[in-house]
């Protein structure tokens, strides 16, 4: 854990010892003990913005958003620079978690980001929109069986999931997750000869659930075009299908948190986490990915579907009806 040095005066030895010990305890997951030490540090040096920044950080780890907001506001009140301080980013995350939109806007603007104001919200009381932050990846359950999926950034602290997560994640397509501000890793895509890098953020918690269930189904798709037809059919209906047989690869944590291309793997089966390639840029599932780049197409595909119960069978039947000689499905199961 890095403690940002922005103090106007050198903190006392007792403050530094208490703070260093607190961050050691945080690393061990002992948040209660760390909280007592950071509270003592704040009592020792209440004029230091770091005292309150560190408390805000601890409350963020604990998902105690009211306390994170309070400590964060104490920290920014003591800052000696106008923009760019990480204190404001933590305030923005806490405000977003609490849906305190005026404060969230103020935090992003104070950090140095442009937050458009819509004609219908000149007072800035609704959630910030139109920041045009683009796509990114998010690591679900970063402390567990982590899974990296693709999504659309709604603002600096939220991503809407656009991949179909595996059932082990407990997450669904279309859910919105709150994420941390510092990326851990990148995914790169090449389109039109241009290489683009996308950050991978760590999920903090679920912000908005999705009512759309996740299904797994086994397909017989004679060609890639047959597989693609199901994905288009689901998308046209406002939902999603994803060929997990080619879009999921297994990476060790070190690889996942580094810069990884999304259209090729390193040919090694690793333990975790699951890593979804971007739509149209399939990556291998471990070492023996059926139909991966440079490999022959395998008709049997394991596919994830995100669609309501009343629609999912109709989608699959309609897909088969369009080309009954080259398409079949079986073993449909709701998994999340």
Average pLDDT rating = 85
Please indicate the count of domains.
2
Radius of gyration: 23 Å
Give the number of DSSP strands.
13
Low-confidence regions: 1-7, 263-273, 279-290
The computed structural class is alpha+beta
Q: Which descriptor suits the 3D outline?
A: elongated
Task: Please give a structural write-up.
The protein is an alpha+beta fold and 336 residues long. It has two domains: 13-111, Serine Threonine Protein Phosphatase 5, Tetratricopeptide repeat (Alpha Horseshoe), CATH 1.25.40; 133-336, no CATH class. Helices cover 34% and strands 24% of the residues. The chain has ten helices and 13 strands. The strands form two sheets. The chain has a five-stranded mixed β-barrel with strand order 1-2-3-4-6. Helix 5 runs antiparallel to helix 6. It starts with 12 loop residues before the first helix and ends with a strand.
Structure, briefly:
The protein is α+β, with helices and mostly antiparallel strands and 336 residues long. It has helices spanning 13-27, 31-44, 49-62, 65-77, 86-97, 101-111, 224-236, 244-247, 253-256, 309-322; strands at 135-140, 147-155, 158-161, 176-179, 186-191, 194-208, 214-221, 240-243, 248-250, 259-261, 274-276, 300-306, 327-334.
Layout of helices and strands:
Layout: H1 13-27, H2 31-44, H3 49-62, H4 65-77, H5 86-97, H6 101-111, E1 135-140, E2 147-155, E3 158-161, E4 176-179, E5 186-191, E6 194-208, E7 214-221, H7 224-236, E8 240-243, H8 244-247, E9 248-250, H9 253-256, E10 259-261, E11 274-276, E12 300-306, H10 309-322, E13 327-334
Parallel strand pairs: 1-6, 2-11, 5-10
Antiparallel strand pairs: 1-2, 2-3, 3-4, 4-6, 5-6, 7-12, 7-13, 8-12, 9-11
Helix pairs in contact: 1-2, 2-3, 3-4, 3-5, 4-5, 5-6
């Amino acid at each position: 854990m890095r403690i940002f040095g922005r103090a106007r005066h050198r903190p006392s030895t007792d403050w530094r010892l208490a703070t260093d010990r607190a961050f050691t305890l945080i690393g061990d997951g002992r948040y209660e003990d760390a909280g007592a030490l950071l509270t003592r540090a704040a009592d020792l040096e209440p004029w230091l913005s770091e005292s309150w920044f560190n408390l805000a950080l601890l409350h963020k780890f604990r998902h105690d958003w009211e306390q994170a907001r309070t400590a964060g506001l104490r920290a920014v009140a003591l800052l000696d620079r106008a923009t760019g301080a990480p204190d404001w980013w933590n305030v923005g995350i806490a405000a977003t978690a609490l849906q305190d939109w005026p404060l969230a806007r103020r935090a992003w603007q104070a950090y140095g980001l442009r937050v458009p104001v819509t004609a219908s919200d000149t007072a800035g009381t609704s959630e910030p929109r139109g920041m045009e932050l683009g796509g990114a990846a998010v690591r679900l359950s970063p402390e567990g069986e982590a899974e990296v999926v693709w999504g659309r950034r709604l603002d600096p602290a939220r991503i809407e999931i656009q991949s179909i997560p595996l059932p082990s994640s407990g997450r669904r397509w279309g859910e919105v997750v709150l994420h941390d501000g510092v990326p851990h890793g990148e995914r790169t895509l090449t389109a039109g000869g241009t290489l683009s890098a996308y950050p991978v953020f760590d999920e903090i918690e679920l912000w908005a659930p999705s009512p759309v269930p996740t299904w797994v189904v086994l397909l017989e798709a004679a060609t890639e075009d047959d597989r693609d037809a199901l994905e288009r059919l689901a998308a046209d209906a406002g939902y999603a299908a994803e060929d997990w047989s080619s879009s999921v690869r297994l990476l060790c944590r070190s690889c996942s948190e580094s810069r990884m291309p999304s259209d090729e793997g390193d040919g090694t089966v690793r333990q975790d986490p699951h890593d979804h390639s971007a739509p149209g840029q399939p990556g291998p599932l471990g070492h023996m990915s059926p139909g991966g780049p440079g490999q022959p197409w395998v008709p049997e595909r394991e596919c994830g579907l995100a669609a309501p119960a009343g629609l999912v069978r109709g989608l699959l039947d309609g897909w088969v009806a369009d080309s009954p000689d080259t398409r079949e499905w079986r073993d449909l199961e709701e998994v999340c």
